[in-house]
# Entry
Amino acid sequence: MSQLSSETRGDARNTAMEQEKLLRDFERVARAAPSATALMEHIVARIHETMTRYNWVGFYLVDPHDEGVLIVGPYVGSFTPNARIPLHTGLCGAAARTGQTVIVDDVRKDPRYLAGSSLVVSEIVVPMFVNGRFAAELDVESYFPSTFTKPEQQFVEACAKIVGTCMARKGGI
# Structure
């Protein structure tokens, strides 16, 4: 039992160190990125390849032609996402409406879940604001239950904040 606890603590330390490395990389790329889209593309690729339990990572953006709809932005993952999500629908819609991070440990038990894949078990959606206005979301889905602990939430929120700051600096996507 103590060996397992020691291994679990070691895994958590390694994950935290990897997340810190990623955040430093994202900050560096954000300073030089030609656009917020380029930064988003970099972030989804790096998170997906580094965080093994993050099976789908992507951004949803407010549709510039219909502010009541989110459209899929840069993403990486093993399934095709919903291309358009009305703001009153799903977990993405819930995050947009409330302005709060939404975490679901088991989407199969949440009636708000808008299925992108039957393999998804847990999800986190972080709303992003630019100059005080809702502009986008960072959505991460996992095939494992209860993936998004408090440290995971803090990491995903930090990623979203970096992109939101870049969007504000660059004047959009």
Notes: The chain has one domain: 2-170. The longest helix spans residues 2-32.
